[in-house]
Amino acid sequence: MATIKCIGILTSGGDAPGMNAAIRAVTRRAIYSGYRVKGILRGYKGLVADEIIDLQSDSVSNIIQQGGTMLKTARCEEFMTEQGRRAAYETMKKQGIDALVVIGGDGSLTGASIFAQEFDVPIVGLPGTIDNDLGGTDTTIGYDTALNTIIEAVDKLRDTATSHERLFFVEVMGHTAGYLALNSAIASGAEAAIIPEMHTDVDQLGQLINQGFRKSKNSAIVLVAENPQTGGAMALAERVKQEFPQYEARVTILGHIQRGGSPTAIDRILASRLGAAAIGALLEGQRNVMMGMRNGQIVYVPFSRAINHHEKSIDTGDEDLVRILSI
Ligand code: ATP
């Protein structure tokens, strides 16, 4: 196994608050251990196109509190092809980069896994996505901040919902996972959460109207996970219009506001611990694993497990919890 002298860092896929804290931790922990560090701009795009900067300790000063990513991020079609990945490998050789730390979501780690196998490159991943849709880790970097952003918005919507006696559908991100919708529903005291993991044979909207809204409440907030297959919150509001015209339904799609903002303490600490651990892992000779946090302990998660979030199933008891606590 060749000795590692220089480590490249990139952020890829959707930006997530705490990515900067992770870049800082990786850079400083690597420098502490005597490695050189290079920042790859715009995710895999910068690796393919050779857009690389040197990172010193002071390059990552004053970023721990900032959302987004100082290295920029992007989606990269070329990296999906063998030819594109070969170009990325050529850049690594040219720049003298011996190992990579990839910060991103399931797509980014899927790419990392393929690249590592094809070109025998040591790669360690960090879970950087607001969606929390990675296996082997309790939460991902950015998830806690996004939850806090959502509940702040829902608290404001609640004022209008109660004043006007309306039903509000609030659509949140999550890719194909319902963690953001379900946990922000618990935290904001919403009446229900509608998430992709729920049984499709249950008419969740009908249940909500009949059990809660109709009997005891004249306003309700329902957190809805984005879902291109069902049409998300817009489709639910349309159904209310058709089937329950006595209720006034409104839709708020929170959109990209969920991805920005200064990371919470929880995300900064998670990013700092996992970022430093990524360098420790490379020193130990670990390869092709994602750093995760399980029950307060750092764990190494093989990429194959990390990209399969269905192994970390949503607690269906929490769906009942939302309903029970909002009666
Ligand atoms: P988020 O969860 O925030 O959407 P992500 O990492 O899942 O983040 P994607 O857009 O799915 O975001 O992936 C980011 C990049 O990773 C892609 O643009 C592509 O360059 C690379 N990638 C994704 N899937 C693959 C794949 N199967 N093979 C090679 N590269 C991939």
TrEMBL record:
One of its GO terms (cellular component) is 6-phosphofructokinase complex. InterPro entries: ATP_PFK, ATP_PFK_prok-type, PFKA_ATP_prok, Phosphofructokinase_CS, Phosphofructokinase_dom, PKF_sf. It is found in: Cytoplasm. Gene3D superfamilies: 3.40.50.450, Phosphofructokinase domain (3.40.50.460). Pfam families: PFK (PF00365). GO terms for biological process: canonical glycolysis; fructose 1,6-bisphosphate metabolic process; fructose 6-phosphate metabolic process. Keywords: Allosteric enzyme, ATP-binding, Cytoplasm, Glycolysis, Kinase, Magnesium, Metal-binding, Nucleotide-binding, Transferase. Substrate binds at residues 129-131, 166, 173-175, 226, 250, 256-259. GO terms for molecular function: 6-phosphofructokinase activity; AMP binding; ATP binding; fructose-6-phosphate binding; identical protein binding; metal ion binding; monosaccharide binding. It catalyses: beta-D-fructose 6-phosphate + ATP = beta-D-fructose 1,6-bisphosphate + ADP + H(+). Catalyzes the phosphorylation of D-fructose 6-phosphate to fructose 1,6-bisphosphate by ATP, the first committing step of glycolysis. This is ATP-dependent 6-phosphofructokinase. It comes from Candidatus Alistipes avicola. The lineage of its organism: Bacteria, Pseudomonadati, Bacteroidota, Bacteroidia, Bacteroidales. The gene is pfkA.
